[in-house]
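Chapter summary example: a protein plus pyridoxal-5'-phosphate.
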Amino acid sequence: MVSFYPGPSRVHDEIPKWVKAAHRKGVMSMNHRSPEFIALSKKTVGLLKEKLDIPDDYTVLFTSSATECWEIIAQSLVHTTSVHFFNGSFGEKWFDYTHRIKQGATAVRFEIDRELKAEKLNANEGDILCITQNETSNGTQVPGHVLQQLRKKNPEPLIAVDVTSSMAGIQLDFNSADIWFASVQKCFGLPAGLGIMLCSPRAIQRAALLDEKDHYNSLSFMADMMEKWQTPNTPNVLGIYLLMRVLKEMEIISRTHKKITNRATSWWKFFKGARNLKLLIPSEGVRSHTVIAIVAQPEVITRIKLKASKKGFLLGEGYGDLRKTTIRIANFPALSDKEVKQLKGFLKDYR
Ligand SMILES: *Cc1c(COP(=O)(O)O)cnc(C)c1O
């Protein structure tokens, strides 16, 4: 079965080989205070910065998931208010999780077929602005130039960006925001259980200023530990090892970006003028490159999912309110061109 689910998603073919190697090398029982772990952690962070083009002065932290990153931001970086801009379920969930921790969280919703208008946003009164760059639930994205404008218009607050389903898939301008996070079961093509969080020097300073130290995953505590390439708790060492292996093989992000955006455009063309299966997002400017969302009659959706699974394709269910009327197709780097071609061959008869 080939998984086109947008997370957890198809993993790289080499994973079984790397898991075996990890076992042979003692990675699975590696002590997280040992010199071996410190070397692994340092190497992984170095590769991540090199392959994804992350500024040198940004701090990389290992977490367990993107959800954990939502909570770390709420507890350690929000003094009183956070402003959440979203148009779908993941952005809303982030807002809900934050609101439970800090009641000053406010929500700003926008339409799925409209660009977030950065020049109209005056959000300087918030401590932190929260944006879901790639909304996995509906296949939209906030384009890079909007994030850059948002940064320009709002120099004071920190900006945090959820890139769970786009980091390692498309090129991101990390200088345009302070906090970026993702988990590895999407574009990295790895098994779940590891999150990655990037913090600008400003974000680290803010954490130190608020000095929140009530949790094992308080940001200033985590950042202090990372100065020695370590984490407060025992991390997912196998996950970090697999991340290191995948990064070693990975092309630089500008190349991956080209491949992914070309493949997205070819998917859009494929569905252009289709009778039954239509792209959910009419406006190209806000369409996600990594998650293709298709809308159809519920009966059509049910039939396609069933037939697809018989042919060996796992398609992504609709998410949240869109469960019955949409399917989602991952366009992640671990999927091969051959697999994409095969799926197109199958979908051709249903368009
Ligand atoms: C998948 C996803 C999450 C949640 O990731 P976890 O690793 O399950 O915490 C958060 N935000 C977005 C945009 C996602 O796609």
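Key point: The first strand starts at residue 2 and ends at 3.
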